[in-house]
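Subject: complex prediction, re-run

Hi both,

The earlier run crashed halfway through, so I resubmitted it with identical inputs.
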Amino acid sequence: MNSLNGKVAIVGAADTEVGVVPHMGATQLCVDAALRALDDAGINKEQVDGLITCNSMAEPYMYHAEAIAEYMQIFPRYCLGVGTGGGTTFSVLHHAASAIATGVCDTVLITMADSLHSGLSKEQAMAMQASTGHQQFEIPYGPTVPAFYALAGQAHMAEYGTTPEQFAAIAVACRKHANLNPAAQKREIITVEDVLNSRMIADPLHLLDCSLISDGGSAVVLTSAERAADFKSPPVYLLGVGEGHSHEHISQARNLTTSAAAESGQRAYDMAGVGPSDIDVAQIYDCFTPTVLIELEDLGFCEKGEGGAFVENGNVELGGSLPVNTHGGLLSHCHPGNPGSMFALTEAVAQLRHQAGGRQVKDANISLVHGQGGILSSHTTLILGRDKH
Amino acid sequence: MEQIYPKPPLDEESAPFWEGAKEHKLMIQECNDCDNAIFYPRTICPHCFSDHVTWTEASGKGHIHSYTVVHKARPPFKQDTPFVVAIIDLEEGARMLSRIVGDREDVSIGKPVSVVYKKVDEDLTLPCFQVEE
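This time it finished cleanly. Structure:
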């Protein structure tokens, strides 16, 4: 079987300052993230022969990756700018790993940044909102991004009896982790009552069920497992990767309460030769709290419909059976839009290097990282390990 | 200041739907080969790729697949808040996003609904739904 298992390693990983960063534009953040990751890897730009970026909403370019390459005067033989984020952030890792494994290039820099908090004009913010949803058959009815996800949350409540308190437990866990992370945008501890008392955005989503709006960037360096030992930082190996894609528009979803994470997860587990019980720490895409709950079920951490019970009582907190989003996630660490998933990836690297400080999961050897984008549309699951196998 | 609602970009593929709405008809497509109902409008059947796709007037009846009450929205929809956005399963088998008008207390998943028409202006009428008595 053609498999990427153990063939590629992350040898550099770093974040910029995140949260509210008005003194840097999106392009500067993207370059800053790249420089930090190259420094972490201990290499210079001449050793980079592949470059992947995602486009910025605040400072878009028609050819974004080429614009960053030009800014940094890098001349890659493999260069890709993607227009979207979420799950796409990890699908490009899939592409990059495939390119390395097939000899298309040796060392790929993936750098992503945006400044959604400080960098968007009012017109850009309006355009961003208006771009989400089917132009003819959804947008005229006035749905918002939280409303699209709320449709899945409501369906889960009706089908399985999930409660707003259970959704809130996810936000509480993320905030507890962010409290231990000096880089996080929101660090003050919150309770389930705080979440339920925050302003209603779209039933059942309260303000604190929704992710942040942030500035920031993050980058990783990938190379082959053979070359990984030559780099400065300890490598983290790609054990498995899988994707699942089910729709673009939520009104066309096959199912509101079971996502294509079920497929991406199984494909990643199969490649890695591990299962959910082998995962020591997980980073699960958390644009809104119901997203996490549905993904936890689809990735096999609990039975379908039992996500509500699974996230209660501190299970997904540090010290629980499956610590989730140990950096604080999009809910509390930061969410600058398309690059949002990258911070989950760099956190997984920190956890597997045992460099996560006060939020370190003891003896973490295998981490699962899951990203989704669109409205539960596009899913990629990564399984990473300290060891090759 | 009057807020302008976004207009769906009309095209030939979907014109019968929007023209029908103006005449208070809920038009959907059906496949003559595999008999599936199709929404949104397409030039081919997405199930069997047949191009024998024809327009038909739906009954306008269905039930609520899911819904949410939108409390926060940007202009122009801000002036409508709170409003109910829902996914409707039409009895013909197609599924569409819409709004539910009327008392929000009556709205819950699984309830039967029927189509009503909201005239935005001379060019645009939106099919919406109300909970059946």
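The interface with chain A takes residues 5-11, 14, 39-40, 65-74, 77, 80, 83, 85-87, 95-99, 108-110, 120, 124, 126, 128 of chain B (CB under 8 Å).

- K.
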